[in-house]
Amino acid sequence: MKLYSGPLSLFSRKVEIVLGEKGLAFEREMVPFTQAKGYSPKHPVVLAANPKAQVPVLIDGDLTLFDSTIIAEYLEDAYPEPPLFPRGAGSRARCRLLELYADEVLFAQVRRLLYRTEPLHPDPKLCALRDEEGRQADGAIRVQYGQLQDQLGAQDYFCGAFSVADIALFMTVLFALRLKGPSLDAHPVLAAWHARVRARPAVSKVADEVAAADRALSPP
């Protein structure tokens, strides 16, 4: 099994956690990435496998897959133990909705903060526009943190047992924090969940690697 990943690819790192939680051995190849040029030049295997030309790409035998959600669902079907989706159609659907919320709703705001790791733009007007957009995104993320905390309630994990929903939400919150987004101080229940997930060995390994990549790749 081989995974094409990126040092600061949220979705690739999400797949790495799934693989780690399931105890699956895999070879990892990091594709070229810099903050100035992004994923350039594109890796030829990624270009051939994914019409969006993005990591992650997973190769398992004669099967090549892209998209973190599709890969996670395949790994659950092909390697069901330990499970990362709950049992029952309704519970699995709710888990998938939470994963989608992380990937497409919360991340939509987090994406607006990416400029904070890029080299400073020389145009002060553009910098001011970016800062205003960042403040708006910060406000939206705080609201979403509150909604997530309400949904978590007294549970240790979002779907009862640890699941793909926790992996996706953790990674998106992690990226919000690394992009200098809102802290979790005003949401202690969510902060405790974040620390609980962060302590899992497969998650801790990825989080530490992301922090190291940040130090190596981000501008001063």
Descriptive terms for the model:
single chain, 220 residues, Glutaredoxin, Glutathione S-transferase Yfyf (Class Pi), Chain A, domain 2, 2 domains, four-stranded mixed beta sheet, 4 strands, 56% helix, 7% strand
Description:
This protein has 2 domains: 2-78, Glutaredoxin, CATH 3.40.30.10; 89-217, Glutathione S-transferase Yfyf (Class Pi), Chain A, domain 2. It starts with a strand and ends with a helix. Helices cover 56% and strands 7% of the residues. It contains 8 helices and 4 strands, in the order βαβαββαααααα. The chain has 220 residues and is α+β, with helices and mostly antiparallel strands. The chain has a 4-stranded mixed beta sheet with strand order 2-1-3-4. The mean pLDDT is 93.
